[in-house]
Amino acid sequence: MDAISTTVFVFACGFLLAAWRLNGRQANVTANLIDGRRIRILCVLKDPHAPRWTRGHFVIESGTWTWEPGARQDHPLMLPSDVRPVRMRPPTRKEARLNHRFLVMECTSDEGDILVAALHGQIEHVFMALTRG
């Protein structure tokens, strides 16, 4: 019985440590955003007709945003400057390769539709930056 309670205690402590770490990281991103400092949010982009996701960083600094595609991509998908979010949703079964904590934001622009995916606590910052500009 003592081994079971020790195991439960260790798992509970690990869970609390992970939750505390993730909450601290999210608070740091939010504080940097409020202070006007540069933040980079890991995102993936996809043209609905393309087979692959393009990895990169959505960069927000002093009220403006830019897209930095990943370093090792031959023909990276670029985020148009006139992109507007339409709706946010969880990944579908066809998008099962995405991290289960990602949310997918469907966007539109003059160049066509585009999908943007990021972690749950960070996609909100991307959404606010796109609707602001």
Instruction: Classify the helix fraction into a percent range.
Output: 25-40%
Can you tell me the residue ranges where pLDDT is under 50 for at least 5 consecutive residues? none
Oligomeric status: single chain
Following the backbone from N to C, one meets helices and strands in this order, namely HEEEEEEH
| Beta-strand percentage range | 25-35%
Number of strands: 6
* Biggest sheet descriptor: 6 strands, antiparallel
Contiguous helical run count: 2
Given the helix and strand composition, which structural class is it? Answer: alpha+beta
Name the features.
133 residues; alpha+beta; six-stranded antiparallel sheet; 35% helix; 33% strand
Describe this structure in words.
The chain is of the alpha+beta class and 133 residues long. The protein is globular. It contains 2 helices and 6 strands; from the N terminus they run αββββββα. A 6-stranded antiparallel β-sheet has the order 3-2-1-6-5-4.
Write the layout of secondary structure elements.
Elements: H1 2-34, E1 39-46, E2 54-61, E3 64-69, E4 84-89, E5 102-109, E6 112-119, H2 120-132
Antiparallel strand pairs: 1-2, 1-6, 2-3, 4-5, 5-6
